[in-house]
Amino acid sequence: KVLNFGSLNVDYVYDVPHFVCAGETIASSGRGIYSGGKGLNQSVAAARAGLPVYHAGSVGPDGGILVDTLRQNGVNTDFIKLQDAPSGHTVIQVDPNGQNCIIVFGGTNRMIGKDHIDGVFGGCACGDILLLQNEVNNGAYIIQKAHETGMTVMLNPSPFDEEIRNLPLDLVDYFVLNEIEGAGIAGTEDPEKILETIFSRYPSAQILLTLGMLGSVYYDGNCVYRQAAFPVEAVDTTGAGDTFLGYFTYGIVKGLEPQEILRLASRASAITVTRKGAAGSIPNLEEVLRETF
Ligand code: ADP
């Protein structure tokens, strides 16, 4: 079982002729409202891969769409606390070239109390693996609690900021990083050096580094495995990393061979990038296994 203590965002997406400038008011020609947040996307990915997923987090009265999306994907939402404050949300401008520009408001994602965390970890043996990103507050306490409970801790330090260094990273069993997060943690941009640096600091951790179109690298504590990205026509790379992480987690829980895990996760995220959107574009396991590229 997987416990994802993660962010839940309502994404408000506006089509604009160009990004709004200082002092300017522009009209939007279309608006979409979507469920998002790295936490939600990763729960959906792990659930579509076929894992039993519990999502812990917090929403406000405007967060019904988020809970509904998780439930529709078979994710358990018993540990999502309703608070009297706005849910995490983003305001996204999309221009005619498909470029975007985003404001994120943490809202209830940043209001996770220690009593809530104690309840999640104390009330039940709700997971074997904890997934955590960097969009909820009290991350250090969450990692500590998961470790005390004997869970495997998988950290995706995304989006990267300096606060990551204050987390008890020595308690992390799996680092899942893209190049930016890897460079942030290791202080170097070279993928080999990122692996070496993280390994030298946290020798018992396993490391998955995703490199966009250049594929992925996984150090499982013994060997380094590499996987090229599948050549597809990318339409929207949003959610690629979240899909990879969900399927990687599936492979770990199911005890698949490392190379097989990378192949499966790459195939799944290649499908995601061929579709527009985030959570909605994540394929399920059947689709991934049917894909022949
Ligand atoms: P993130 O979304 O966190 O930045 P990456 O960009 O590293 O993560 O992408 C994660 C994985 O998704 C890559 O390792 C690769 O397997 C796959 N992927 C990303 N972009 C593409 C692409 N343009 N074509 C095919 N696969 C891709």
Number of strands: 13
Q: Write down the oligomeric state.
A: single chain
Count of distinct structural domains:
1
Whole-number radius of gyration?
18 Å
Number of helices: 9
- The CATH architecture: 3-Layer(aba) Sandwich
Name the CATH superfamily assignment.
Ribokinase
- First-last Cα distance: 30 Å
CATH class: Alpha Beta
Shape call: globular
Mean pLDDT, nearest integer?
96
Ligands bound, unique: adenosine-5'-diphosphate
Classification by helices and strands: alpha/beta
Taking pLDDT < 50 over at least 5 consecutive residues as the criterion, the unreliable ranges are none
In CATH, the topology is named: UDP-N-acetylmuramoyl-L-alanine:D-glutamate ligase
Strand content: 15-25%
Strand order of the largest sheet: 5-4-1-8-9-10-11-12-13
Q: How much helicity do the residues have?
A: 25-40%
SSE string, helix = H, strand = E? EEEHEHEEEHEHEEHHEEEHHH
Active site: 242
InterPro entries: PfkB_dom, Ribo/fructo_kinase, Ribokinase, Ribokinase-like
Protein name: Ribokinase
Binding site for ATP: 178, 210-215, 241-242
How does this structure look, described?
- This protein is an alpha/beta fold and 293 residues long.
- The protein has a single domain, classed as Ribokinase (UDP-N-acetylmuramoyl-L-alanine:D-glutamate ligase).
- Helices cover 33% and strands 24% of the residues.
- It has 9 helices and 13 strands.
- It has helices at residues 38-49, 64-72, 114-123, 139-148, 179-186, 191-201, 240-254, 258-273, 285-290; strands spanning 2-5, 9-15, 30-36, 53-59, 76-82, 88-94, 100-105, 129-132, 152-155, 174-178, 206-210, 216-219, 224-227.
- The strands form 2 sheets. The chain has a 9-stranded mixed sheet with strand order 5-4-1-8-9-10-11-12-13, with helices on both faces. Strands 3-2-6-7 form a 4-stranded mixed sheet.
- Strand 8, helix 4 and strand 9 (152-155) form a beta-alpha-beta unit.
- The chain is globular and about 55 Å long.
- It starts with a strand and ends with a helix.
- 46% of the residues are buried.
- It binds adenosine-5'-diphosphate.
- Its EC number is 2.7.1.15.
- Homodimer.
- K(+) binds at residues 236, 238, 272, 275, 277, 281.
- Keywords: ATP-binding, Carbohydrate metabolism, Cytoplasm, Kinase, Magnesium, Metal-binding, Nucleotide-binding, Potassium, Transferase.
- Pathway: Carbohydrate metabolism; D-ribose degradation; D-ribose 5-phosphate from beta-D-ribopyranose: step 2/2.
